[in-house]
Write a structure and sequence with these properties.
Layout (H helix, E strand, L loop, with lengths): L1 H27 L7 H23 L5 E8 L5 E4 L5 E2 L5 H13 L8 E4 L12 H5 L4 E4 H10 L3 H10 L3 H10 L11 H6 L8 E2 L1 H12 L6 H12 L18 E7 L2 E2 L2 E2 L2 E8 L5 E9 L5 H19 L2
Helix pairs in contact: 1-10, 2-11, 3-6, 3-7, 5-6, 5-10
Length: about 325
């Protein structure tokens, strides 16, 4: 099932352009269709209703919430604080992974190349790292295994090793600039983020920046088809965050997503995030980013905000 859904995601871009002429011809044959002005007013009304609904949901977080959502085939969109800066936390593993795969595509390394992960590479004890927990003396892994740990399991150690292989934060940001992704900055390692509460705010994205990233992945900017396919597969298989974007969607919905989560300090949680590409009931694809920052409520409420926003957008734009 996952393989079928993934194939559809990969094929839809070419199918959209191929079918556009047929769709236009069919639309021209419709009778009694609303005028352009009527359709525009209806769309504007629906957008305002959705924005109001998102605002009410966001208030439950008692913090700073940002949302951007874009239907990739039609351009329909909705947002809340789309250009504000939010700490990404593990969301930033996706741009790092994309930059690393660009190095693979360029022949600078192989996907099956073995890489030694030393004890000195391990992130702190309070940070998530299955690699560290399973291999306390270190381990040798392939580039593909590192990518899977970082994207599907959100392993901080894997992320730091990938960042080094990709050439560091500067190289990742140069890659992002080259594929026209703005409003997103990778500045530090996971180990650095874990050592100082304020450092996480230096690694930020706006909601629109996250949409730029997802759209770049969807459009295969700077990546081979094989690399895009692998990244989407790992995003679909991602295990964290089942109660976030996925939380209120129908079972079996294709969700290629990456979460990000901070610790809580003095009753404030800096980051509870989820970004991804959803396959809508009408077959279109929704890029959506929801960031919940500096929130004073519990995890269930924060994750519930993300799930409710995703469902509201799904219901309004997916029909």
């Amino acid at each position: 099932m996952k393989r079928t859904l993934l194939s559809y995601v990969l094929l839809v871009t070419s199918l959209t352009s191929a079918c556009s002429g047929t769709t236009t011809a069919q639309n021209n044959n419709l009778t009694n269709k609303p005028s352009a002005s009527q359709a525009t007013k209806k769309d504007e009304s629906r957008e305002r209703e959705l924005e109001d609904q998102i605002g009410r949901i966001a208030a439950e977080a008692k913090g700073h919430v940002g949302v951007s959502a874009l239907v990739l085939e039609t351009g329909e969109e909705v947002s809340l604080n789309p250009h504000d800066h939010f700490p990404m936390q593990s969301v930033y593993k996706l741009p790092i992974g994309m930059a690393l795969m660009r190095e693979v595509d360029a022949g600078k390394m192989k996907i099956d190349q073995r890489v030694r992960v030393e004890k000195s590479d391990f992130v702190g004890a309070r940070q998530h790292s299955p690699i560290r927990d399973k291999n306390p003396q270190g381990v040798e892994l392939s580039v593909e295994e590192l990518l899977r740990y970082a994207i599907s399991e959100s392993d901080g150690t894997a992320s730091d090793v990938m960042l080094r292989l990709a050439g560091g934060a500067g190289a990742v940001n140069n890659f992002l600039s080259g594929i026209k992704v703005s409003e997103l900055v990778v500045a530090n390692t996971e180990k650095e983020i874990g050592s100082d509460w304020q450092v996480q705010y230096r690694n930020w994205s706006s909601p629109d920046g996250a949409i730029n990233l997802l759209r770049a992945l969807y459009e295969r900017r700077g990546l081979s088809e094989q690399s895009q396919s692998l990244l989407l597969k790992l995003l679909i298989e991602s295990t964290p965050g089942v109660k976030r974007l996925k939380g209120l969607l129908p079972a079996g919905t294709a969700v290629a997503h990456k979460t990000g989560t901070s610790n809580t300090q003095d009753g404030i949680t800096a980051a509870t995030n989820d970004i991804g590409i959803l396959t809508l009931p009408n077959g279109h694809h929704l890029a959506i980013a929801v960031f919940v920052s500096d929130s004073s409520v519990d995890e269930a409420t924060r994750e519930g905000v993300i799930a409710k926003v995703a469902r509201a957008v799904w219901d309004k734009l997916g029909s």
